[in-house]
Write a structure and sequence with these properties.
By secondary structure, the chain is mainly beta. Helix content is 9%, strand content 46%. The longest helix has 11 residues.
Length: 181
């Protein structure tokens, strides 16, 4: 039988009293599968990708090319800039990201970054960075702790809130580790 993630409540309900033999070897394997953390990481593989800014309200995903780490477990990359949770139970996730940017033109612009959950910014992760001048690398780190369900995806989002100046991405990565709840 395949080892499957189950809810902790289901598994723990069998532990108090095993006089009736309710706990079998499959339950133990499922417990291990349930408690095992999954993780995945995507990284930008070529610097200089330009995010075209059409307004200063819309959150934009950072364009690729992106690559998924080969040791990802329960996470995949369904498309550029997205890290999808493939587990079978809801999980709390610690997501961490790093982004380094330049302005294509202009100076003294404020850029906002966020970890996105299903395309929307995870509000507690929003960070602002003042970019002093073009070709002056500015970096920021982000963290988020959302709950996810199977099929949810994370991404890196940004927007230039001061102008319509485009943004060049020098480096970006997004890491996620899920935990049973």
């Amino acid at each position: 039988m395949v080892d499957t993630q189950r809810t902790l409540a289901d598994l723990l309900s069998r532990l108090p009293d095993n006089d009736t033999g309710q706990i079998d070897p499959q339950d133990i394997r499922d417990l291990v599968a349930t408690l095992r953390s999954g993780s995945g990481e995507i990284s930008l593989t070529a610097p200089g990708n330009v995010v075209v800014v059409n307004d200063n309200v819309t959150w934009l995903e950072i364009p690729g090319p992106w690559a998924l780490s080969p040791d990802a477990f329960n996470w995949s990359m369904p498309g550029p800039a997205r890290l999808r949770y493939n587990g079978t139970t809801p999980r709390m996730v610690h997501a961490a990201a790093t982004v380094e940017i330049d302005l294509v033109a202009g100076a003294n612009k404020t850029v906002e970054f966020a970890v996105g959950v299903n395309g929307a910014p995870w509000v507690p992760s929003i960070s602002q960075q003042l970019v002093s001048a073009g070709l002056q690398h500015e970096a920021t780190a982000l963290h988020a702790a959302p709950m996810v369900v199977p099929g949810d995806f994370l991404s890196l989002l940004l927007r230039n809130i001061d102008s319509l100046d485009d943004i060049s991405i020098d480096y970006a990565n997004l890491f996620a580790m899920d935990m049973a709840m």
